[in-house]
Design goal:
With 352 residues, the chain is mainly α. Helices cover 64% and strands 3% of the residues. The protein contains 14 helices and three strands. Helix 5 packs antiparallel against helix 10.
Length: 352
């Protein structure tokens, strides 16, 4: 019985993880029963609890999992015998399966939600060269206009008010389909992952195992609001990176806070076609911010690690039904151009 327990546990864990990943589940249940049901209940309960912790819970969980597995491996190795290596490998498989079940149940099933493009009145025929050029010109004009006020806000407060950002954010995810009040997560810095984020060019993440948001600590004040709103999009159960970028863009563009508004403009500008934005000159203040953001990135940049990280993440996204992989990050600009917005800056809902 003891010898059979290891293979059986590994088989059950892997089988359940695969079933959660591949089993056909109706889109209606995913939206109502999971995203706005099970996941909503988990998130609204756990996010506030984790927010109260003065440290990154994910660091603790990573340490516990690693130490637990290392301890298990050492005990099995000390027992010796021909099956010690097999037992350790089976333990690793069981751990992987358990983490897969945890991931899918805690957040991953949101990957099956309908993309944001199907939730709004997006019309691809509106995305013409002329429309993109007009949008780019408007973004540059607004960047140049807003930069002085944004920097006065940085001088006064240091960073954007997250309560204001939250108030700008909540109507966006409500318009996109969340029927509960999303509890946003307090941005934290990971002791274990922060340097990796910096050298691999990662802006942040929503950790679905710990229900917390981790941001790159090197971000400049005008970079943070958009990056935080992006991660809150994931907290709200929108998994695709392009969708999270759209949520962040809409959040920032509709804000009356100059720093939040400027952050959205700054990031949107970076995703627009360079041959288009080159037609419209940036002010010296905005160019200085571009240089500062580039210097921040290059201060830690390690090309080999950056390339490895983004190849791996591209594979992960495609495996989770995000057809565009990492290219999906930039898809939100077409949605912005091709979707009308109301007086509140919210996208018009789909009529289907």
């Amino acid at each position: 019985m003891t010898r059979a327990r290891g293979p059986l546990a590994a088989l059950i864990a892997v089988a359940l993880a695969i079933a959660l990943f591949t089993a056909p589940i109706s889109a209606a249940w995913i939206e109502r029963g999971y995203a706005n049901g099970i996941y909503a209940a988990l998130a609204t309960t756990l996010v506030p609890l984790v927010n109260a912790l003065p440290f990154a819970l994910g660091d603790v969980l990573i340490a516990l999992v690693l130490l637990g597995f290392v301890g298990f491996a050492i005990r099995r190795a000390r027992r010796g015998g021909r099956l010690a290596t097999v037992a350790i490998l089976l333990g690793l498989v069981t751990l992987g399966g358990a983490l897969g079940i945890w991931f899918q149940g805690a957040w991953g099933l949101n990957y099956r939600r309908a993309p944001v493009a199907y939730r709004i009145a997006y019309d691809g025929s509106r995305v013409t060269d002329a429309a993109v050029a007009a949008f780019a010109r408007a973004i540059v004009t607004d960047l140049n206009r807003t930069a002085p006020a944004a920097h006065r806000e940085i001088t006064r407060a240091g960073e954007a008010d997250t309560a204001v950002l939250e108030a700008d954010f909540l109507p966006v995810v409500a318009r996109l389909g969340d029927t509960y009040r999303v509890r946003v997560s307090t941005p934290k810095t990971s002791f274990l992952l922060d340097r990796w984020f910096q050298i691999a060019g990662i802006g942040g993440m929503f950790d679905p195992f710990a229900y917390e948001t981790i941001l790159n600590s090197a971000f400049l004040p005008f970079e943070r609001p958009f990056a935080l709103a992006h991660e809150w999009g994931h907290v709200a159960g929108f998994t695709a990176e392009g969708d999270a970028n759209l949520i962040a863009a809409l959040t920032c563009l509709r804000s009356h806070d100059p720093l939040i508004h400027y952050s959205g403009l700054f990031w949107i500008y970076g995703y627009l076609p360079g041959d288009v934005t080159a037609r419209y000159p940036l002010s010296a203040r905005v160019r200085a911010d571009e240089d500062a953001a580039q210097a921040r990135f290059l201060r830690y940049y390690q090309p080999a690690i950056y390339s490895l990280q983004w190849r791996a993440y591209d594979t992960y996204l495609r495996a989770n039904r995000v057809a565009g992989g990492v290219r999906s990050y930039g898809e939100f600009t077409s949605l912005l151009v091709g979707t009308p917005r109301d007086a509140q800056g919210l996208p018009s809902p789909s009529r289907t």
